[in-house]
Design a protein that fits this description.
8 helices; 16-stranded antiparallel barrel; 27 strands; 579 residues; three-stranded mixed β-sheet; Ubiquitin-like (UB roll)
Length: 579
């Protein structure tokens, strides 16, 4: 037997005798599939790596790549493709060429969806859920069959069931029978809904400072209520917006054995009991500002919140104190507040003291507030007006938000309706009724755009304007009103300033487009006016362009608007940061 060193030399000589070649791969295929084939075919990947290959490896890659191409085309619904390949020497290298003809595309011929579990015998509600689930199945007869679409359609079929009543739903069986002779696919899916789920008691963890009753009272869920995923999201949002918790997670474990009374698992991360904060900002409405606040969230260890704050702006200064009780078992939050404020805007100078008692509740998208407010005010407008006003008012506000908590929503709306009034016989200088409504609608416009429509109407019904505090009257103009005009500059013009009036009407159309990141642009048209009678409302217009920036702390808007009534351009800008 030859020595080991000799055998090694013979092996190396054999390797050196086997010629190795660089490889170039060319793929001729429809543009729809060519990138997919070039990315995943083994020969193409080897060519990209630039490796030297012998003839045996070239033959293996040629065969393997053809099989991979067949599998890739099958996922796109082409089950009878023709794939031809050649291997040609070019100088010292090789060119491997694939010619791919996909052939006829397979289409869905029939679809059958069956349901098992509690949903199969759930009465009228079950019939509606089954119909909704079937509507979500995106593959229909005569549509092309693609593996990705088939997988997505099965997941979409489960969607409505997982979010309403049946969180343990699963695909019990699914089959796609392909008939290559007729290029057709027969689809069959069976969904097992499992049992219907109903809420049990909450299981709370993470709270140390604040009473467990605070968490329970914020819940919109009742034991025995049918499961709905949106309920858990609403509960989580209520916890995070309550002021007590920095973070909250609300979920259930979809265990069929617990379906009759599934525990609601609530995990919270608490905010500190006391917090001092400072903020700075600037806006073209009220100028630069500095704000400060101090809050104690657990007065008397009962979850009462005491907040003291002050806000100093160029044209407005406010300070106040508020004591708020935690939500009660019915979801209401009560508070008492005192506010002092002073402002000088467009020549209208006011100094006011406001004492208010409020009762508010948030349920899902709806927020309501009932308040009783006593306000005294000193009013001056140049030498034209000098008055003292007071009013004891009962007020009701109703707001619906369908936009979630996005800084820049692209769908949904925010609707606010307010009503209130005072009686001269009850600590008020005059009797009046105040009505106000504002609606902002967001529409998706393409992949990176949105359309915003806004309108607001206000009316004060009274025999006279005198004696009504200015907070219950109206003026227009500014960043969130009619751009192109100074803040609250549209009203009753007097010598020395602009007075608040009894009627308001404004509207806006705006388009935003974002350039793939956080920067975007805007074009808009605003219109509106404020007057002392409906007949005197004479809308003025503002048109302009703007820049938008989605910063981590909130939206930054910069607008340049032209006011047609003043024939002037005006810059509108706002930015604020809290510490």
């Amino acid at each position: 037997m030859p020595p080991p060193i000799f055998r090694t030399l013979v092996f190396l000589a054999a390797l050196c005798a086997t010629p190795a070649h660089a490889l170039t791969v060319e793929v001729e295929a429809p543009d729809e599939f060519k990138p997919l084939l070039v990315q995943y075919m083994e020969a193409a990947r080897a060519a990209r790596l630039g490796e030297a290959l012998d003839e045996a490896e070239l033959a293996r890659l040629r065969s393997l790549s053809a099989e991979t191409a067949r599998e890739l085309l099958a996922t796109e619904g082409y089950f009878s493709p023709q794939i031809d390949s050649t291997l040609t020497p070019v100088e010292n290298d090789w060119v491997m060429r694939f010619t791919v003809t996909p052939g006829p595309r397979t289409r869905v011929r029939t679809l059958k969806v069956d349901f098992a579990g509690a949903l199969a015998d759930a009465g009228e509600l079950g019939a509606r859920l089954r119909a909704r689930a079937e509507r979500n199945f995106t593959l229909r007869p005569e549509m092309p069959f693609r593996q990705a679409d088939w997988n997505a359609a099965k997941m979409a079929l489960l969607g409505p069931l997982l979010t309403i009543r049946y969180p343990a739903s699963r695909l019990a069986a699914s089959e796609a029978r392909i008939d290559p002779a007729t290029q057709s696919a027969d689809l069959m899916v069976t969904v097992d809904s499992g049992p219907a789920f109903f809420y049990g008691q909450p299981l709370i963890s993470g709270n140390q400072r604040y009473s467990e009753s605070i968490i329970r009272n914020l819940s919109p869920l009742k034991p025995g209520q049918p499961y709905r995923q949106q309920d858990l999201l609403d509960y989580q949002a209520a916890l995070e917006s309550s002021g007590y918790f920095a973070q909250a997670t609300v979920r259930i474990e979809p265990d069929p054995a617990l379906a009759a009374a599934v525990p609601i698992q609530v995990e919270v991360v608490e905010r500190p009991e006391k917090l001092f904060s400072v903020g700075v900002g600037i806006s073209t409405d009220t100028g630069t500002r500095v704000s400060t606040s101090w809050i104690h969230r657990n007065i008397l260890e009962r979850g009462l919140r005491l907040k003291l704050d002050a806000r100093l702006e160029t044209e407005r200064q406010t300070g106040g104190a508020e004591l708020a009780w935690p939500h009660d078992a019915k979801g209401y939050e009560n508070s008492l507040g005192l506010q002092l404020k002073q402002e000088d805007i467009e020549g209208q100078e006011t100094r006011a003291t406001v004492l208010a008692a409020k009762r508010s509740r948030t349920r899902g998208q709806i927020e309501t507030t009932l308040s009783l407010q006593y306000q005294t005010e000193e009013l001056e407008i140049g030498d034209a007006v000098s008055a003292s006003n007071q009013a004891l008012t009962a007020n009701y506000a109703w707001t619906q938000r369908t936009v979630g908590r996005a800084f820049y929503p692209r769908r949904g709306y925010v609707l606010t309706l307010q009503g209130g009034g005072a009686a001269e016989a009850l600590l008020s200088d005059t009797s009046f009724i105040r009505l106000y409504g504002r609606h902002t609608q967001y529409f998706r416009a393409g992949d990176n755009g949105r359309l915003i429509l806004r309108g607001e109407l206000g009316s004060v019904l009274a025999d006279k304007r005198e004696g009504i505090p200015t907070d219950f009257l109206f003026r227009a103009g500014g960043d969130n009103s009619v751009r192109g005009y100074a803040y609250q500059s549209l009203g009753r013009t007097l010598e020395g300033g602009v007075a608040s009036v009894r009627y308001l009407a404004t509207g806006s159309v705006e388009y935003n487009h974002f350039f793939g990141g956080n920067w975007g642009m805007a074009v808009f048209v605003d219109a509106g006016d404020a007057a002392d009678s409906l007949g005197n409302l004479s809308p003025v217009y503002g048109v302009g362009v703007g820049a938008r920036y989605r910063s981590p702390v909130g939206p930054v808007n910069l607008d340049l608007a032209y006011g047609e009534a003043t024939d002037e351009f005006r810059l509108h800008f706002s930015l604020g940061v809290s510490f």
